[in-house]
Amino acid sequence: MSTQRTPSSKRDRRPGCYTTLALLVIFGLAGKIFFDYEISAVSPGDTRIVRVTIPAGASTQSIADILANKGLARSSDAATAAIYISGKGSSLKAGSYAFNRSMAALTMIDLIAAGKTDTLLVSVPEGFTVEQIAQRLGTKKLADPLDFVRAAVTDGTTYEFADGFAPPRNLEGYLYPLTYTIVRGSTPRQIVQQMLGEFDRHIVSRHPEIRDWRQIVIVASLIEREAKIDSDRPKIASVYYNRLRVGMPLQCDATVQYALPQHKARLMYSDLRVDSPYNTYLHRGLPPGPICNPGHLSIEAAIKPAVTDYLFYVAGPGGAHIFSHTLAEQDRAIAEVRGKSRGI
């Protein structure tokens, strides 16, 4: 008599094993995503300084509690987990630290373990370019210059902005000149975000009526590099807007300097032929972008230019500019300036 064979019990369990394995993978991935979120930065765009004091002899748990209570970690448990993952629980050092909520928990733990306390002051003058800012940060050992330039000129649209504030990919012009208190261990991106935050606070938030900042910031950058006397700034702005309105080239020497490989103390006529979209002697209209990071007074001048019909200006020996309506007036002003410089 024949007997019917039944599938083996191992084969019967195979579909259930696959289901269990899939669920374990899903739960594992979900757990990792949740854990990564728990130890990530609490507020990536918030670069305001939060000072933290770690007392001598503080336990791992008390340090985790301090970070959580200061709003620097999502919870005490999350901070404790970050300390555990870092493997530096026994190396955490007492001291006064300066952090911000854009720092991940692991970054803060690394700084506490290294004993890198407090902050550094960095002055960013009006008219500095991104590259000049990068070099200053490099001198202070706060950022690698190349990394800072990369963060500032390639990722502009990925930063957090206020409503109505949408800078371009290249943030030249939007890094607000100021003396900054920068937390040791900040990444180049965090420093850029801090400078953008100041542009928002000092400029954008005071002019909610402005929706497009491109032209204003470009014009302000030209003013910043040309003006030596504050009272000249609105008049220089008026010259640029008057020229744009009638279709004249801006003929701004500062844009030629920006286009040259190196800055020159004095431009030659041959420099005015440099092949660059920033050469406003050759190309009408605005240059492609700002040529520096302008300060408050230049930006305000670009927003509220003087009401004039000036089309020309030339710098006098003392720094103040002479403004003219016609080319004939400009030629006389240039002759006057040259005569004074020669003592005539």
Give a summary of the structure in a few sentences:
With 344 residues, the chain is mainly alpha-helical. Helix content is 44%, strand content 8%.
Task: Tag the structure with descriptive keywords.
8% strand; 344 residues; mainly alpha; two-stranded antiparallel sheet; Dna Ligase, domain 1; 3 domains
Report on this structure.
With 344 residues, this protein is mainly alpha-helical. The protein has 3 domains: 50-114, Dna Ligase, domain 1, CATH 3.30.1490; 119-206, no CATH class; 214-341, no CATH class. It contains 12 helices and 6 strands. It has helices at 9-38, 60-69, 76-86, 105-114, 130-139, 145-153, 188-202, 214-226, 233-246, 253-259, 296-303, 327-341; strands at 50-54, 95-99, 119-123, 179-183, 312-315, 321-324. The strands form 3 sheets. A two-stranded antiparallel sheet has the order 1-2. A two-stranded antiparallel sheet has the order 3-4. Strands 5-6 form a two-stranded antiparallel sheet. A hairpin with a 5-residue loop joins strand 5 (312-315) and strand 6. Helix 2 crosses helix 3 (76-86), helix 8 (214-226) packs across helix 11 (296-303) and helix 9 packs across helix 11. The longest helix is centred in the first third of the chain and has 30 residues, at 9-38. It is elongated and about 85 Å long. Mean pLDDT is 86; it is low at 7-11.
Number of domains: 3
| Helix count, DSSP H or I runs of 4 or more residues | 12
Largest sheet, described in full? 2 strands, antiparallel
Q: What is the 3D form?
A: elongated
Structural class: mainly alpha
Helix content: 40-55%
Radius of gyration: 29 Å
How confident overall, as mean pLDDT? 86
Number of strands: 6
